Each structure stands twice: as C-alpha cells, then as structure tokens.
Amino acid sequence: MSSGFVRHRRSKRIHATFSDFEADLLRSLASQLVELLHNESAMPSAGTDPLEAMLDFSGPTTEPEDPVLKRLFPSAYRDDDEAAAEFRRFTEGSLRDGKARAAATIIDTLEEAGLPPEPGEEELTIDVELDEETAQVWLRSFTDLRLALGTRLGVEEGDEEKWYALPEEDPRAQAHHVYEWLGYLQETLILSLA
C-alpha cells in the first residue's frame, strides 16, 4: 500500500509512490467521476465561445436525480426553492466543470508520471510529484471522490462496526477499503501541505 504523501525538504514538492494497481485505481475512480459529471445537461457545450459560455446562465434549476450529484451539488437554500433554483442556474455548470478538471488533473498527473494506458504484466511503481497548487487540486478531488464513493456505499458517521463486520470477499467491504484508503491519502496530503 502507498505510504501516502510527504513533502521533500529540499524541493518543497509533495511526493507519493503508488503501485501500478493503486495508480490505476485512482485513475479509474477519477475517470468515473469525470464521466458522471459530464453525463448531465449542466455541462457547457463544447465549441461555445468562452465569453458566451461565461455569460450563459441557462444552467439547471432543479436538483440532480443521482444521489452522488445531489451530494456534490447540494441545494444552497433548503427552505427557498426559488432562490435555490436561481443559485443552481448560475453556479452548477461551472462547479461541475471545476470538479471534472480537478479529477482530470489526477489522471493527467498519473499518466505523466508513467502510468501506462493499460495494465501490463510488469509491476511498476508510479512516483508522483506535486507542486502546492496541483496538490490543492488533488485534495479537492479526493474530497469529491470520497463523497461520491461514500454516497454510493451509504456510509454514515459512526457506522464503522458495520463495515468491519462484513466478510473480506464482500464487494461492499472491498469498496469501503477503497473509501478508507482515499481518506488516508487525503489525510497525508493535508499533513504534507501544512
């Protein structure tokens, strides 16, 4: 298992080493998040003039149906549907785009560090070095990934015993291990940024 993120004393850059399996798992999770964010009408259409896109406030006005998207884009005004719809219309498209770009940064960084497009026979280690700005992007994306996975699993505060009671071969237990691993990576990244 990855030892998490650490800051180099000399370069001040943040470093992590992943097995090819771990790096591929991160890429897969980030890719799934990008796909989920793009499979909704809130995404700006490609080819739109950038200025026109900035001034286009025709975003969605209703909460997403997908529970993960509801968690990633909660209502800004729980007691005022009209204000919530207006807020969503002006913000959700750009928020989705930002979350998708952050997840894509994880993918790009892993591939630039040597993660091959397809898993191979040879076991590799992938050394990732992040500057502070990129580390902040990774950190935001880890939050989104954990929210997405936690929502899909139905993770609730204080329910650790439930997860530890599941047999190892249960797919939910395995997915929960991934959820915890993401939390570990997030924690070590926070500590390395401090």
Automatic annotation (TrEMBL):
InterPro entries: AosR (IPR018561). Pfam families: DUF2017. This is DUF2017 domain-containing protein. It comes from Nocardioides vastitatis. The lineage of its organism: Bacteria, Bacillati, Actinomycetota, Actinomycetes, Propionibacteriales.
